[in-house]
Design brief:
The structure holds 2 protein chains of 2 kinds. Helices cover about 30% and strands about 25% of the residues of chain A. By secondary structure, chain A is of the alpha/beta class. Chain A has one domain: Rossmann fold, CATH 3.40.50. Chain A has a 6-stranded mixed sheet with strand order 6-7-8-3-9-10. A 4-stranded antiparallel sheet of chain A has the order 2-1-4-5, covered by helices on one side. Chain B has a 6-stranded mixed beta barrel.
Chain lengths: ~240, ~400
C-alpha cells in the first residue's frame, strides 16, 4: 500500500454528497445530518469531533454503512452504495471496513484468536487460512503471546488491541473507530493512539476516528468538526 | 451464498451452548421428559400389540369362530350396538356344518357358564367350558404325562361325570395336593377330575383365561347349565389357504337358519386387527398426551432463546457490523435452538430405551426404530418451530441499536 498523508492528489476512497439523515420522533422531524459533503482520501488519518448531539455518531454510522441516508449519495471506492440492500451492505462492510468500538465488543469467553477470526467467518477467505491470518494480525498489535486469552484475562488496552486486530484482519480500506480510547486509562489510550498512528504511517491505513475529546482529535492529520448536522469550517465540496 | 458455512455455524453454536452448561441441561429437560415418555408409551403400545399377536398365534392360526350377534362393524372395529346373546345355536347347526362345510377338520361347539366349585372346604367361582372331546384335538393340547387325560367321545355320549381342570383352578382348589381322581362338586353334581392341563397363559375369548376353565363334556355341561344351547362354534381348517372360502361356506349354511345380523363368522386375523386398532388408538392417544410435554419443552426453549438473544444483543450487533447477513444470524440462532432440542431428544431416547428395558422385565414393551426416528424428528422440529421466533428477532436487530444496547 502507498504511504501518503492527507493530500488532494490522493485517491478519493469515500465521497459523501449532500447526505441528509432525518429522524422522526413524536411527529416532529429532525435532521441529524443536514447536507454533509465529505471526501475521504486513501491513507488519511481523520478525526471527527463535535459536541454531543452534533451528529458525529450518525455521520460515523453513515460512513460505516451501518445506516442509510435519507437523501444524498455515498460513493465508496467509485461505487454508489447509498441504495444497497441489507445483504449487499453487510458484504461491503465485511470487505472494505474495519470497526473499533469504545466498548471493545469482544465475544466473552472466547479467545483473542477466535475473536480476531470472526470477520473472516463471514468472508470469502477459505477457512484454512483463518488461523494463520489471525496469528499474523495479532502479532501486528503486539499480542502474539495472548492468542489463547479470553477478554476477561486481558487488560482494557489489550482488549482494544484485539479489537483493532479484528478490524484489520479483512485488510479493510477504511478503519472506523468510535471513541476508541473512551474506556481506557490515559496510558492505554495513548498506546492505542500510537498504534493507529503506526498503522497509518507504516501500512498506509486509512483511519477515521470519532471523539468528543479535542486534544485527541487534534492528533489526526485532518480534523472534521461537526455541529448541528453540518461540517463547520469547510467549504462545501460537492 | 451461505456464509459462513454450515459447519462453522454448527461449531460456533455448539461452543455458545457449552458456555452455559447448566442452562442447556435445564432447557433440554422439558424435551427430555417429553421424548422419554413418548418412547416409553409407544414401546408399551408396541409391546402389547406383539403380546396380543403372540397369544392369538398360540391359540392356533387356522381357527374360525361362529358366534351369535354382530361382533364387528363395517370398519373392522368392534360393533358397539350388538346384543351378543340374541340367539344361540343348537345341535342341528352342528350337524349341518359338519355335513356341508367340506374343508372343516373339526367342528367344535362350546358353551360356558359361571359356576361355584367345591372341593372339601374350598369354594371357588370359575367358568365351566362344555365342549366335545375333539376340543383338545383341535387345539392339540392335552394333559401332560402323569396329569391324567382328556375325556373321550364315549364319555361325552354318556354324560360321564368327569372334568379336566385348567392349571390355575386346579391350584386354587387343591393347592399342592394331587387333583387327579378326586371329586369336585359343581351345582350339586359330583364330578371326577380325570386330567389337569398345563399352564398355557394368555387370555380366553370373552371369558377367563384357559387356565381358569374347568373343561367338561358337552352333554354333562348341558345338564349343569340347564339347557342345550350352544353358545359358539369353532371350526378348524386343515389348509390355511382355505380359511376364506371356508368362512363363506359357513356363512351360507348359517344364513339358511339365521338372519345376517344375528351371527358372526370370523377368524383370528379379523379379531387381531380389531384389537390392534384399539391398541393403536390407545397408543396414539397416550403419546399425544405425552407430546404435550414436548410442546411445553419447546416453549422452554423459545423462552431461553429469547433470553439468549437479549443477552447477546451486542454480539449480534457486532456480527452484523462486521458483515454477517441477517440470514446468517437467523440460521445461527436456529441451529442453537435445534441443538438444544436435539440434545433433549437424544437424552430422551436413551432414557426412554433404558426405561423400556427396565419395564420389559415385567410388562411387554419393545422399542422400535420408528419410535426413535419419530421422537428425534419431532424434537428437532420442536427446536425449529420454537427457535424461529427468537432467531428472527435476532436477525432483525439493527446493528446500531444492538451495539448501543447496555
Amino acid at each position: 500500500m502507498t504511504k501518503l498523508s492527507s493530500n488532494n492528489k490522493a485517491k478519493v476512497l469515500l465521497e459523501l454528497k449532500e447526505v441528509v439523515k432525518t429522524y422522526t420522533s413524536g411527529g416532529s422531524k429532525f435532521n441529524a445530518l443536514d447536507g454533509v459533503c465529505l471526501n475521504l482520501y486513501q491513507g488519511e488519518f481523520v478525526s471527527i469531533t463535535g459536541p454531543s448531539g452534533s451528529g458525529k455518531s450518525t455521520l460515523m454510522h453513515i460512513i460505516g454503512l451501518l445506516d442509510v441516508p435519507t437523501s444524498g449519495q455515498i460513493i465508496l471506492d467509485g461505487k454508489d452504495v447509498s441504495q444497497l440492500g441489507e445483504n449487499q451492505l453487510a458484504s461491503t462492510r465485511n470487505k472494505t471496513l474495519g470497526f473499533v468500538f469504545q466498548q471493545f465488543n469482544l465475544l466473552p469467553k472466547t479467545s483473542a484468536l477466535e475473536n480476531v477470526i470472526l470477520p473472516l467467518v463471514y468472508s470469502d477467505i477459505p477457512s484454512w487460512q483463518h488461523r494463520d491470518l489471525a496469528v499474523a494480525t495479532l502479532e501486528k498489535v503486539d499480542l502474539s503471546d495472548k492468542l489463547k486469552n479470553t477478554p476477561a484475562q486481558l487488560s482494557g488496552g489489550q482488549q482494544q488491541r484485539v479489537a483493532i486486530a479484528r478490524a484489520l484482519i479483512n485488510n479493510p480500506k477504511i478503519i472506523l473507530a468510535d471513541e476508541p480510547t473512551g474506556n481506557l486509562d490515559s496510558k492505554s489510550g495513548a498506546d492505542v493512539m500510537k498504534l493507529f498512528h503506526r498503522l497509518n504511517r507504516e501500512e498506509g491505513r486509512t483511519i477515521v476516528f470519532v471523539t468528543h475529546d479535542m486534544d485527541l482529535a487534534k492528533q489526526a492529520n485532518r480534523m472534521i468538526v461537526i455541529k448541528d448536522g453540518r461540517i463547520i469550517g469547510q467549504e462545501k465540496q460537492c | 451464498m451461505l456464509k459462513p458455512s454450515f459447519e462453522v455455524l454448527l461449531k460456533s453454536s455448539f461452543r455458545s451452548i457449552l458456555k452455559n452448561k447448566g442452562r442447556t441441561i435445564l432447557t433440554s429437560l422439558g424435551i427430555i421428559i417429553g421424548v422419554t415418555s413418548v418412547i416409553l408409551l409407544v414401546s408399551i403400545g408396541n409391546g402389547l400389540k406383539g403380546y396380543v399377536s403372540e397369544q392369538f398365534e398360540s391359540l392356533g392360526t387356522n381357527l374360525i369362530y361362529v358366534t351369535p350377534g354382530k361382533l364387528f362393524n363395517s370398519d373392522g372395529g368392534f360393533n358397539q350396538d350388538a346384543d351378543h346373546s340374541s340367539i344361540t345355536f343348537d345341535k342341528k347347526d352342528m350337524s349341518l356344518l359338519e355335513r356341508k362345510v367340506k374343508d372343516a377338520e373339526y367342528v367344535i361347539p362350546y358353551s360356558s357358564k359361571y359356576v361355584t366349585v367345591k372341593y372339601a372346604k374350598e369354594i371357588k367361582g370359575t367358568s365351566i367350558l362344555a365342549s366335545t372331546a375333539e376340543f383338545a384335538k383341535a387345539r392339540k393340547k392335552y394333559p401332560s404325562a402323569g396329569n391324567g387325560r382328556w375325556y373321550t367321545p364315549e364319555e361325552d355320549d354318556r354324560s360321564a361325570k368327569v372334568v379336566v381342570l385348567g392349571a390355575t383352578i386346579a391350584k386354587d382348589l387343591f393347592g399342592d395336593k394331587k387333583a387327579l381322581n378326586r371329586q369336585i362338586t359343581i351345582s350339586g353334581k359330583n364330578l371326577k377330575v380325570i386330567g389337569v392341563m398345563d399352564k398355557v397363559g394368555g387370555a380366553g375369548l370373552g371369558g377367563p383365561d384357559f387356565d381358569s376353565y374347568i373343561f367338561i363334556p358337552l352333554s354333562t355341561g348341558f345338564s349343569i347349565i340347564g339347557n342345550e344351547d350352544i353358545q359358539s362354534i369353532q371350526l378348524s381348517v386343515k389348509d390355511n389357504n382355505k380359511v376364506e372360502s371356508t368362512k363363506e361356506a359357513i356363512k351360507s349354511v348359517m344364513l339358511d337358519r339365521y338372519k345376517e345380523d344375528d351371527f358372526s363368522v370370523f377368524d383370528q386375523t379379523e379379531l387381531l386387527s380389531s384389537i390392534n386398532s384399539i391398541l393403536n388408538t390407545l397408543t396414539i392417544a397416550l403419546s399425544g398426551i405425552a407430546a404435550i410435554s414436548l410442546v411445553v419443552g419447546g416453549i422452554g426453549i423459545m423462552n431461553i432463546m429469547l433470553v439468549t438473544v437479549t443477552e447477546r444483543t451486542r454480539e449480534i450487533g457486532l456480527r452484523k457490523a462486521i458483515g454477517a447477513y441477517p440470514r446468517a444470524i437467523l440460521i445461527q440462532f436456529l441451529i442453537e435452538a435445534v441443538i438444544l432440542s436435539s440434545i433433549g431428544g437424544g437424552v430422551g431416547i436413551i432414557l426412554g430405551s433404558l426405561g423400556t428395558m427396565a419395564i420389559s422385565n415385567f410388562f411387554p414393551a419393545k422399542v422400535t426404530a420408528e419410535s426413535i426416528l419419530l421422537a428425534f424428528g419431532v424434537s428437532s422440529l420442536v427446536g425449529i418451530i420454537f427457535g424461529v421466533a427468537p432467531a428472527r428477532r435476532a436477525s432483525k436487530l439493527s446493528p446500531i441499536e444492538a451495539l448501543r444496547y447496555e
